[in-house]
Amino acid sequence: MKILTNVFFGLLLTMMVFSCKKENSNISDLDTLRKNNNKISYPVAKMDSAQAISFITKQKIQELFDLSTLYTSGHRDTEIDSVIYAQMNGYFLTPDSLKLKPILQQLDSFKVKTVKVGNIEVSKELNKKDTLDFAKFNVEYYDKDNKLIGSFDKNAQYILKAYPVKFKKEFKFYFVNFDVPVKKDSVSVGVSR
After folding, report:
1. Which of 35, 100, 174, 177 has the highest CB neighbour number within 10 Å of its CB?
2. Cβ neighbours of residue 148 under 8 Å, at least 6 residues apart?
3. Tens of pLDDT along 114-157?
4. Is 7 exposed, middle or buried (0-12, 13-18, 19+ CB in 10 A)?
């Protein structure tokens, strides 16, 4: 009886092994690479120049705020702090600590830990023979517990300077002024009779 049970379990085990034969359906890395192309693997997002400028402007504003919050959270007397400060100055056409001071003071006064930039709108203004580029945007300040401190509308003037690189037309982005007061485009209301 004991032999029959052992034979029965042996047959059952053998049948299970052969019935669960797994076919190797893995595709080799070479086959995967051979069948890849940029159209399927990497979707191309097309932007017109206005969308590209808006995207780049938002990115630069976010980078400046990220560096500013990093700087204000530090001790401001270490080598890395001086590197961050120099990097922040590099975002401006003419590096000037007076342009950074209001940004840093506002972040300090609210004890801001992170900033989120949103709702950006780029525009051009004619001033005599010059065309000035402006960006109106919204920033949300968050504290160390990631709680919203407040949402503020801001305005920045920027410039794209031509920076040709060997047969390519490239530009460098700089802020001219940050947190520029918005000009009123309406006529003030007078007394009517």
Report:
1. 100
2. 140, 141, 142
3. 999 999 999 988 888 888 899 999 999 999 999 999 999 999 99
4. exposed
